[in-house]
Specification:
By secondary structure, this protein is of the alpha/beta class. 40% of the residues lie in helices and 18% in strands. The chain is built from 16 helices and 21 strands. Strands 7-6-8-9-19-18-16 form a seven-stranded mixed beta sheet, with helices on both faces. Helix 15 packs antiparallel against helix 16. The two termini are 33 Å apart.
Length: 646
């Protein structure tokens, strides 16, 4: 009887434990649905302070409609997992908004009114193999007529999730978008083919322009004007053509009135030279740009005749010049890492890396009244090239072999702040024909201001290729359906700089969460070192071949008589010796090349084996050792207690 009672107790205990386990799981799933512990290095799953700031500034309620075809997504675990993350984020945002965010979750079933609503609001559906359409997007509305949408939460933009949602909320919470004035000779809005190609559907706007449109109201200023409109909050000057005195004066006075400027100048703009669909650059392109005398007055010494080359920061480019090596380091295209950014400036503290092409250099001007603060710069493994040398079109290997680092770092972008005096002594006199046409006061220059009342705030970048799609993003789709998948932080830098100059830093901390692929630094260093050896050996081989060919040509000339065709006498021991020596040297050089490549693979494979061991085997081994230690300790304690009891 006693035995049966104990068995029944055990069974009942197991049943109660199972019931309790299920109850705890159900309870935690409901009550602690949004609870989480973020153990990621960059706190990727924790609501950013920037989002908190945006939510705190909401004045009127905003409604978010999350359209998710949950019933159709059952067979797509990746979509379900991402949808849960989106829903968790939206629920957390709703909870932190103190009632200012209203969240509605809609499951648009096929042929339902909800599906019609999703289509009418501009959401995109993803068609399955069975022909059904899955909706997975977000629509936000405010109390007036504002509407913003994320047509589809694509997997490629998972790392931008919080930024995209918070940007949507901020756009709805503002009565109007801030105005960004743009002065440029780059066809940002039409693409490299220009207006005519864009009208024929043969050209697309720059991806950076699409990002700017999402955040700001764009006001394109012609490159000849006498006044910056009063509603412009920030002026972006991106590789303009040579500006006349009236236009330079208008920019000068905009700064004197307290206007903020983001300027991109370039001694050799490759993006301007990009060929359109007809094989030619856009009409009216300019290779170089400058803002003299404004830059000097702002406290910036800009070198228009030199390009920065950097062996340590060189981008990897496709060459296909050698069967063994299809890519090479191109020292004129730079991938600037986080280590070369000012970590104390809010604009650059969140940047991982930026890609540039044939960039110039900046220095603080003598006797300047402003503070010159570098934002990012080259490594010390750098040198400068004369502009004419760059235009000669040397190959990446030629540039690398002739590379001679100076040991100096070169500033590629800088912030200029502080009091400013005008670069002009008075308003320039307008031509008579222009003056007679300007009857409206809005078309006339502002009254001259000699100096700023408050500190100026200007950011200058010595490169325009930072805006080029190929340097920072992969673009898929056309028109409004385009999807951007960045692999560098070029757009993050531009948007953060403009937001900062406008006095809005809320979204900058969110862009810090955008993660690009982390480089394999150790592997890259191994490859670079081996490749330098490879190039040195290759050049030695070429020199030896040239020397031997010249010697053979000389032997041919010496051995050819008046009635003998030019050629090497096969019986000539000197010729045979030269040929044998050439073949020996060639075989030795090829063997050396193979050894270098084999050593490179050996080092990389060894590193991969060590990492694989650490990830797969090391932790179980450590756990087993700890468990064994605990078992031994418990055994000793039991043995000690048994000894005392005896």
């Amino acid at each position: 009887m006693t035995t049966m009672s104990r068995s029944a107790i055990r069974i009942a205990t197991l049943v109660l434990i199972a019931v309790l386990f299920l109850a705890v799981n159900l309870f935690s799933n409901i009550v602690f649905r949004s609870a989480q512990i973020d153990l990621t290095q960059s706190r990727l799953f924790t609501l950013s302070q920037g989002t908190e700031n945006v939510l705190a500034k909401i004045d009127e309620p905003i409604t978010l409609k999350f359209f998710y075809s949950e019933s159709l997504a059952t067979d797509f675990p990746q979509v379900r997992a991402y949808a849960n993350r989106v829903r968790d984020l939206l629920e957390e945002i709703r909870d932190r908004s103190h009632g200012k965010i209203v969240l509605e979750v809609v499951d648009p079933e096929p042929f339902s009114e909800q599906e019609d609503l999703a289509m009418s609001l501009g959401l995109k559906g993803a068609r399955t193999t069975e022909g059904e359409v899955i909706y997975f997007g977000l629509v936000g509305t405010n109390l007036v007529d504002g509407i913003e949408a994320i047509p589809f939460f694509t997997d490629e933009r998972q790392q931008y999730l919080e930024y995209d949602v918070t940007r949507l909320i901020q756009n709805l919470s503002r009565p109007k978008k801030p105005v960004l004035g743009i002065v440029t000779n780059i066809p940002l809005d039409t693409g490299s083919g220009g207006l005519m190609a864009a009208m024929r559907g043969q050209s697309q706007p720059f991806a950076i322009y699409q990002e700017l449109q999402n955040r700001f109201e764009i006001n394109f200023l012609e490159q000849k004007f006498v006044k910056v409109p009063a509603d412009v909050d920030v002026l972006m000057i991106a590789h303009p053509k040579q500006l006349d005195q009236e236009t330079l004066y208008a920019i000068d006075q905009f700064v004197m009135r307290g206007g903020r400027v983001l300027a991109f100048v370039d001694p050799h703009s490759e993006v301007s030279l990009t060929a359109g669909p007809d094989g030619q650059p856009v009409q009216g392109y300019t290779e170089a740009s400058d803002l003299a005398p404004l830059l000097k007055d702002w406290g910036v010494d800009y070198d228009t005749n030199h390009i920065v080359g950097d062996r340590d920061l060189a981008m990897r480019v496709q060459t296909g010049l050698d069967a063994r090596r299809q890519t090479s380091d191109y020292v004129l295209w730079l991938s600037v890492p986080k280590a070369e950014f000012d970590q104390n400036d809010i604009v650059t503290s969140s940047i991982d890396h930026i890609n540039l092409g044939t960039a110039g250099l900046l220095k603080p001007a003598a006797n300047a009244t402003t503070r010159f603060t570098p934002l990012f710069w080259s490594s010390k493994d750098a040198e400068t090239y004369d502009l004419d040398y760059v235009k000669a079109g040397h190959t990446p290997d030629e540039l690398l072999n002739a590379f001679k680092p100076t040991g100096e770092t070169y500033v590629l972008a800088a912030r200029v702040s502080g009091p400013l005096k005008s670069a002009f002594s008075a308003a320039p006199a307008l031509p008579v024909e222009d003056e007679t046409k300007r009857s409206d006061a809005t078309d006339k220059p502002d009254a001259f201001i000699a100096q700023t009342k408050a500190d100026a705030n200007i950011i200058v970048v010595a490169d325009s290729d930072i805006l080029d799609d190929r340097f920072w993003t992969q673009v898929s789709g056309d028109g409004n359906d385009r999807t951007l998948v960045p692999f560098a932080d070029n757009a993050k830098f531009v948007l953060s700089a403009i937001d900062n100059l406008m006095g809005s830093d809320d979204l900058i901390s969110l862009r810090a969460r955008e993660r690009v692929d982390r480089p394999f630094v150790v592997v890259d260093n191994l490859r670079r070192e081996a490749e330098r050896k490879f190039l040195t050996e290759q050049e030695r081989l070429k020199a030896k071949i040239t020397e031997t060919e010249q010697r053979l040509a000389a032997l041919q000339t010496e051995g050819a008589g008046p009635n003998q065709a030019a050629g090497v006498d096969s019986s000539d021991p000197h010729a045979q010796e030269e040929i044998a020596q050439f073949r020996t040297e060639l075989l030795q050089s090829r063997k050396a090349l193979r050894d270098v490549q084999r050593n490179l693979r050996r080092d990389i494979d060894r590193l991969a084996t060590e990492v694989r061991f650490a990830n797969v085997a090391l932790m179980p081994i450590l756990v087993a050792i700890v468990a064994l230690g605990i078992a031994v300790l418990r055994h000793r304690r039991r043995k000690a207690r048994a000894g005392k009891g005896a």
